[in-house]
Design goal:
Blueprint lengths: L1 H6 L3 H14 L3 H17 L3 H14 L11 H17 L2 H5 L7 H10 L2
Helix pairs in contact: 2-3, 3-4
């Protein structure tokens, strides 16, 4: 229902329904899609700080350590460049030998960060 209301531009209704689902759901898997829809709805209303705040809260609730305040953009950019260089130097066979991620909370956080 929240997704349909988002598609129709009824952002206030998305917030109302999302609040109910988030309060009533007992496991994160039941809240995941509504959080995504709520964040998209807030972005659609140009309430970007609220969307970011909810996103950070969800990531922290999943157990991911998040620096507060976040590091400056130039530091993030440097880290991304270093990671890119490291990955470019890594052979495919080496990447394939890494263990598969099994921590369900971290997997959920990775999926959540894709929105």
């Amino acid at each position: 229902y929240a997704e349909a209301e988002y598609c129709n531009g009824h952002f206030h209704e998305v917030g109302r329904v999302a609040g109910i689902v988030i309060k009533q759901a007992t496991v994160f898997e039941n809240k995941f899609r509504v959080y995504v829809t709520l964040i998209k709805s807030l972005a659609g209303e140009s309430k970007l700080q609220s969307a970011i705040d909810i996103g950070i809260k969800v990531i922290i609730d999943l157990g991911v350590k998040f620096p507060c305040p976040p590091p400056p953009k130039n530091a993030l950019k440097e880290d991304m460049i270093k990671l890119k260089i490291k990955l470019e130097k890594t052979a495919d066979a080496e990447l394939l030998n890494y263990k598969e991620m099994i921590d369900t909370k971290i997997i959920a956080a990775m999926k959540f960060l894709q929105i």
